[in-house]
Amino acid sequence: MTYYQKAKEIFAMIEEGKLIEALDKYYHKDVKIIADDGKQRNGIAQAKEYDSNLLKEIEEIYGGGILSIASDEQRPITIVEFWIDLKFKNGNKKKVIVFGNSGHGYFDLSAYDAYNNKKMQDCGYPKN
Predict the structure, then answer these.
(1) Residue 89 belongs to a domain with what CATH number?
(2) For 109-114, what is the mean pLDDT?
(3) Per-residue model confidence (pLDDT) at position 107
(4) In total, how many domains does the chain have?
(5) What's residue 21's pLDDT?
(6) What pTM was computed for the model?
(7) Residue 110 sits in which domain range?
């Protein structure tokens, strides 16, 4: 299975409500996730705990889907842009674009640096 196919399957599992199963299947035990606020989750246990707690707070999902996937099979790098529209149990609503990437880290770090320095361009949000 190519990295592109794996990325499609991970996000298909998420759309089916199988987020924790996707983590178990595809995430490395030593995964490091850096959130937009700079907080880190180190290891699969912290990732699963965070996502399990997040799922408990969601009341309704209005929609979501993959916007784009890019993959370099020669250097195992995959970039996925995914959107989701949520309503939380506390009444808050949130539209989120998830930009996930994996691989050797060079792109990851430069994208994270661009985000922190407000140098990323807003490409718009899909209208349903």
Answers:
(1) 3.10.450.50
(2) 59
(3) 45
(4) 1
(5) 92
(6) 0.65
(7) 3-116
